[in-house]
Amino acid sequence: MRAVHDFHRIKRLPPYVFEEVNRLKAEARARGEDIIDFGMGNPDMPTPQHIVDKLIETVKNPRTNRYSASRGIQGLRKAQAGYYARRFGVKLDPDTQVVATLGSKEGFANMAQAITAPGDVVLVPNPTYPIHEFGFIISGGAIRHLPVSVDSDFLTRLDRAMVHSVPKPIALVLNFPSNPTAIVADLDFYSEIVSYAKKHDLIVLSDLAYSEIYFDIDPPPSILQVPGAMDVAVEFTSLSKTYAMPGWRMGFAVGNDRLIAALARVKSYLDYGAFTPIQVAAAAALNGEQDCVDDIRAIYRARRDCLVECLGRAGWEIPSPPATMFAWAPIPKEFEAVGSLEFSKMLLERAHVAVSPGIGFGELGEGFVRIALVENEQRTRQAARNIKKFLGEAGELMHNVIPIASTRN
User: What is this structure's pTM?
Assistant: First the structure.
């Protein structure tokens, strides 16, 4: 029997950077240690009651136990089209421009399967959420990274990548508000991207999973608001964060009808869609009162403010994120030499606080960690107390540590 690493697609995947931290976290909990976990972006709030009630009501109907529709039931696709009309002023045909997916992650991976031939080049931001890159790697594509930003430098790098990539890139991935960096794009940026994509026959795949988690700024726009964007773009959204429904696995791909048809074709061979009661409840979420979204956003805002304030008092200055459920935190200067993975391990072992090492989101994530706003304010204050003590021991801890640069020689 072959070892797992003998298989072609598995050999293309690097070791999972987060696995080492996850292993240490599991071992600490097995010893009875209380780990304050800011690692995984896993919403901890209850799903709003009216959505749960709709699920319960629907599941009582035995007919809903049958296979569902791979591309999503019509009522759910109409509900997503209605959301785009209200929120962005974008008109979508629910029959040809909307597909329901098993979360945005599955949608991205299957879109990669649908459009990628072996050796195709895809332009991906760095750092970024891993599926943006590895969905295409698994599909046989090649990745060219673009340092993530929303300024003229990004467009300069984009043009350079188009000119110097062989073969010519087929697609560009965008993710704003960004996971992990929390950077937000505006419509002027999207307009330039759409113009460039149309000129160079480039597909644009936009991940808008954090469209409703924003603070102190205008609501983040959709690339599909740009005239002509429907000719080149597909956008992915998710109910996971907006409605605290991560385990329900409900997301969408919307936009260009040719690309949506390709995604729907691939999905038709792979799944029968989400369980029908989940789809009905998801439609109720989109069609119902949106006060619950405001409440969830307010919780994240309070947690963000608590995190930034408390860690600042502890001696760790963290930029306040304008959106998403993450803070993108530079490693404290005392620990820069060890890198993000080793720092994350030390923080877990010494302070009982778990974070995600920035290197897990790409090589340009080195020097940072991602902190998810998934612990309540009381737990955040406890984490800050632990971290303050940890930072006070920095000199002693770093005395015998080999700098990360030395380990690369």
Answer: 0.92
Q: Say how far apart CA 98 and CA 256 lie, in whole Å.
A: 9
Q: Domain check: are 272 and 332 in the same one? A: no
As given in the structure block, the two tokens for residue 86 are 């209200």
Regarding whether 235 and 99 lie in a shared domain, the answer is: yes
SS3 assignment, position 345: helix
Q: What is the mean pLDDT of residues 294-314?
A: 97
Prior bond of 332 cis (ω within 30°): no
CATH number (domain holding residue 327) = 3.90.1150.10
Q: What is the pLDDT of residues 168-195, one digit of tens each?
A: 999 999 999 999 999 999 999 999 999 9
Cα separation, 124 vs 146, whole angstroms: 6
Residue 103 scores a pLDDT above 80: yes
Query: Count of domains in the chain?
Result: 2
Which pair of structure tokens corresponds to residue 49? Answer: 């009651």
User: What stretch of H or E contains 307?
Assistant: helix 291-313
267 shares a domain with 179: yes
Domain range for 83: 49-287
Q: How far is CA 11 from CA 8, 128, 130, 153, 181, in A?
A: 5, 21, 16, 34, 28
Amino acid at 226: V
Whether 246 and 369 map to the same domain: the answer is no
DSSP per-residue codes, 99-122: EEESHHHHHHHHHHHHHPPTT-EE
Contact predicate 77/100, CB 8 Å: yes
Distance (Å, whole) CA 207 – CA 180: 12
86 and 228 in a single domain? The answer is yes
Beta strand residue intervals within 190-271, DSSP E: 203-207, 233-238, 251-255
Q: How far apart are the first and last CA of the chain?
A: 36
Q: What is the pLDDT of residues 143-171, one digit of tens each?
A: 999 999 998 899 999 999 999 999 999 99
Check which CATH number belongs to the domain holding 157 and give it: 3.40.640.10
CB-CB contact of 340 with 365 (8 Å): yes
Please tell me the distance from the alpha carbon of residue 375 to that of residue 126, in angstroms, as a whole number: 27
Chain centre to alpha carbon of residue 402: 33
Q: What is the DSSP code string of 3-58?
A: -GGGSHHHHTSPP-HHHHHHHHHHHHHHTT---EE-SS----SPPPHHHHHHHHHH
* DSSP 3-state of 128: coil
- Which residues, 6 or more positions from 383, have their beta carbon under 8 angstroms from its beta carbon? 36, 38, 310, 351, 353, 375
15 is written with which tokens? 């070791």
A 10 A CB-CB count for 164 gives: 8
Phi, psi dihedrals of residue 36, rounded to the nearest 5°: -90, 110
